[in-house]
Structure formats: C-alpha cells, structure tokens
Amino acid sequence: MNVFLDTNILYEDYFFDNKSPKKILEYARNGVINLYMSEIVRLELRWQFQKEIEAKNRELSKVIKDSKRLKIETEITLLDLNSQLEKFDRFYSRLEHIDNFTIVHYKNEYLPDIVDRAIYRKKPFTEEKTELKDALIWKSYSDFVESNQLEDCILLTNNTSDFCPKKDKSKIHPDLLADTEKFSVINSSFEFLKTKSPILESPIVQFQAYMNQLDFNDDLVKELIIENFDKEIEKEVHKKIENLSPNDILNSDYWYDGYVSGSDVEILDCEDVEYEILADNALVSGKVYVACETECYQYNAARDHGEETFTYINDQTIIFEIFFNFDMRENEECSEFEITDLDINEVN
User: How does 45-59 read in b/e, with b if 16+ C-beta sit within 10 Å?
Assistant: First the structure.
C-alpha cells in the first residue's frame, strides 16, 4: 500500500506526534506501508513551523516587556529559531533513512504543464485561487506513481476542493485523471486508520511486511538450514547411504555384496528458494546440495581365518540434491523441516 501525504494532514503536527499520524508513521517504520511526502509538503511544513516559532517569540517579547514593567524577577528568553529549524531538519533527515519513507522531489520540467494549468484554470487551479504548491504536489506524486508503476495508491488529503470532484471526496477530480488513474483519496489520518487498519494489521500483511524487510535469498536460507536442520539432514543422508552398495556409486561392477559408510555431512549451497505466506508464518521451499565423504567396502568371500568380513575398496564424495520445505516465523524462528526428495546428484 502506497500512501502519499498532503500538507494539511500534518497541520501543526510537524513531528508525527498526534495519535493517527504517529500510527501511520509506525506502519511505515514496520514496512507495512510505503509512505511518501512531496518535497513541497516538507518545505511548507517547515515554513509553517518557522512562522509558529516566530509568533511564539512575539508573544514572549511581550511577556518580557510586561515582566520588566511589573518588576517580575523571572528570566524569560526567546526561542532560538535556528536551533528549532535544525531540529526540524534533523527529524526529516532521519525519516529519509527509513526504508519505507520517501521524499518525492519535484522536477523543473513540470513548469510548462503547471503554467498551462494555471492559465486555463485546470485542477488543482480554479477561478477563485491559484495554488502553485498544490499543482507541484500533484504533479510530483502522479509522475512518481507512473514512473515507478505503483499500484494501490492513496492520496491522504483533506483538500478535497482542489483534488476531488464535489460529489465524491474519495476520488480524484476528472481533470487530474489524465496524469494518473491510480489514486484513491482518504480525507484524514483518522479515516485512514479506521478503514485500513483491519487490513494492515491482519497476520498475513504483518508477516509479509516482516518478510519484505529480510534479505531473503539462497544464502539466508542456507544459513537457516545450517542453524536449525543440519542434524536432520545428516540423519536422512546417512539413512540414504545405508541403503547403497558400492555398485551404486562406483563405476566398476563387483561380484560380491558390500556396503557404503558415510562420515561428516557438509551443506554446500541452496538454490531456487521461495516462500508462500500462510498467515503469521511462511512456507519456505527450495533445494539444497549436501556433500558426504564415504568409504566403500566389499564382502570378502575368500577371506582367511581371522580376516575382516568386509575389505576397504575406495572412498568417494557424494553430492546429494535435497528438495525441502520448512515453516518460518518472525525472528527467523524455523520448524517443521520436511524433505520431499533426496537423490544423488554427483559422485567424485
């Protein structure tokens, strides 16, 4: 789910402190949604924040003046505007390090289209007002969505007069559909949580978010198998080897019966790993290649009294190809390992 923020959603809540915006940001931190903010939105929020600090300083200046007149011996100082703006910038710089939070930048080439919209009063412009910032926000979002081929996109805004038709505040205005048809509209962060939280907090979505944050690949699955199932694999490989005869792995034919003995097992590589989300867990599957050193013995039918019943012939390294699946939960908790096929792949 891709959620795009308009400035009014964070009005006077510059640091996502209020309950609903805080929860939305938490969804992004946890990888449940992708959250996007136009550079224009960030700059407008910064300007609003600056104006608020300046307004508070004007109030403080009056208090300082009145305190002197009233002989009140309490130290009152003005807010340091630069340090407050630095705090704002640090916060949004940290947000950009969240994998699922993105600042969407505008492009200079948007200007000719925006000028055309302004002249002919195409949305988000109207006869009554000319909102350049709204045009830039929309243009940057629509271009980003189309360029990255995103689906399931939500514009989170209560500026319905500029972005929506009068009769339906959940849809994009027809004038804007030429840019993209991929947006639906939700008018408040509270409404977003009310309608989307049951979906976003379902076990399947939550676990998919967890899997998205993993670097799920062949190497990861190999490490999980080594950490959790190496003994099970060794047991099954040795069981397979117990049923082999030297004729199964050596090129020469032997007249007499014999057996093969296996030693340590080494897990070499994983391939073709994939997973399927079931609920609050995933079914991981693939194939793993395993090496085992073996020794081959032949029945000694012509042995003298006191000689061994079986004599050593040769040693071989057998590479097994094993198809597997297992369950994985959060924190890489793995269980229910199953081997669906085990065959000799190579003999060296």
Answer: beeebeeebeeebee
pTM over 0.90: no
The two tokens of residue 251 are 């090129």
CA–CA gap between residue 225 and residue 44 (Å, rounded): 51
Q: Residue 26 above 90 pLDDT?
A: yes
Tens digit of pLDDT for each residue in 121-142? 556 655 455 567 888 889 899 9
Q: Which amino acid makes up residue 126? A: T
Q: Is 184 helix (H, G, I), strand (E, B) or coil?
A: strand
Sign of the dihedral through C-alpha 36, 42, 43, 48 = positive
Token look-up 């899997």 returns: 211
Burial of 3 (0-12, 13-18, 19+ CB in 10 A): buried
List, in order of start, the domains of the chain with CATH numbers. Answer: 2-201 (3.40.50.1010), 215-347 (no CATH)
- Rounded to the nearest 5 degrees, what angle is found at the Cα of 336, between the Cα atoms of 333 and 339? 125
pLDDT surpasses 80 at 187:
yes
The DSSP code for 95 is H
Give helix 189-200 / helix 19-29 axis angle, nearest 10°: 40
Q: How far apart, in whole angstroms, are the C-alpha atoms of residue 45 and residue 144?
A: 21
- Single-letter amino acid, residue 242: E
